[in-house]
Amino acid sequence: MRKLRPVRVWRGLVQVVALADPTPYFAARRLSARVPEVQLVSIYRRANASTLLDALGPALRAGFDSTLWALDGEEATLAPWTVGSGPGRRFQLANRLFSRADAPWRVLIDDDVRFHHGDIVDLIRFASALELDIAQPAHTLGSNVSHSFTRRMPFVVGRETSFVEIGPVVAFGPRALPHVLPLPETGMGWGVEAEWAELERTAGLRLGIVDAVSIRHLEQAGSAYAASEELEAAQARLRAAGLAGWGDLQRTHRRRGLCSLR
Q1: Quick one: which H or E segment has residue 250?
Q2: Cβ(158)–Cβ(208) under 8 Å?
Q3: Is 28 helix (H, G, I), strand (E, B) or coil?
Q4: Distance CA 134, CA 173 (A)
Q5: How many CB atoms lie within 10 A of CB 161?
Q6: Triad 92, 67, 228: Cα angle to 5°
Q7: What is the C-alpha separation between 68 and 45, in angstroms, rounded?
Q8: Which of 161, 217, 245, 252 has its CA 20 to 30 A from that of 138?
Q9: pLDDT of residue 230
């Protein structure tokens, strides 16, 4: 019988506490930041069309410029926002879609995400209020995560960190765009997080995780492509940045509470 590691048990307990934490509710009531102009981009598979449509709902109602690409054929429910179809790599296709608009905020969202607390609109509002340039939502209990660092922390609105993951949801603010677009098109982008972290030093950008908005990633990362090749690419990027591993990259600089909102 496998023994439970103390660290694993502790992380599990933190996630259980996070489920009962009312901070997202109070944060949403206190938040006054207006929604800026946003372009939302997604590359989807027809099997996940209904999941993506649910995630897009608040963005569509808020007037986000939503631009979609269908990998295996256009889905009728998403046709009004689908601009093309066919195979391709995630960042390669995202660059093509991002080039169709010039909104100051851009969001890249995968097709296998459900929001647990908040939604895409809240993510942008919180990121803007916390003055984050590259941001992601936190993962809730039960979400498929690649890095436990991205799981939701209770009793905080967000964290300023040196790590924001390339997916399944990532938002770029106006200060970040000249430095992150176009996205690198080799592979699926694993390890680009190390390059984004370097922008803290070279461009003064702020990276962070918005804990007041959480998601459940329904599929395991890499389940639809050769994850072993991507892992090698990620390790190469980490070495190029002088990092021994992911742990060297995943640091929290500051925790932001309700008093951070305006």
Answers
A1: none
A2: yes
A3: helix
A4: 6
A5: 25
A6: 35
A7: 11
A8: 245
A9: 83
Q: How far is CA 52 from the centre of its chain?
A: 14
Reference 169, options 11, 61, 58, 16; nearest CA is: 58
244 and 145 in contact (C-beta within 8 Å)? no
Query: Around Cβ 170, how many Cβ atoms within 10 Å?
Result: 23
Looking at residue 236, its amino acid is A
Distance, CA of 261 to CA of 27 (rounded, Å): 8
Report the pLDDT averaged over residues 204-218: 98
Q: Does the pLDDT at position 187 exceed 90? A: no
Q: Give the confidence band of 260 by pLDDT, cuts at 50, 70, 90.
A: confident
Residue showing tokens 């259980």: 16
The per-residue DSSP string of 174-237 comes to TTTHHHH-SPP-STT-TTHHHHHHHHHHHH---EEEEEEEEEEE-S-TTTTS-HHHHHHHHHHH
Tokens 């340039």 correspond to: 133
Overall average pLDDT of the 166-184 stretch: 97
Residue 224, pLDDT score: 63
DSSP 41: E
Decide if 211 contacts 122 (C-beta within 8 A): no
Report DSSP state, residue 206.
-
Residue ranges of domains in the chain, CATH in brackets: 6-34+100-260 (3.90.550)
Q: What is the DSSP string of 101-170?
A: ---SEEEEE-SSEEEEES-HHHHHHHHHHTT-SEEEEEEPTT---S-GGGBPPTT-SEEEES---SSSEE
Nearest to 122 by CA among 136, 141, 103: 136
Side chain identity, residue 245: G
Q: How much is the pLDDT for 181?
A: 97
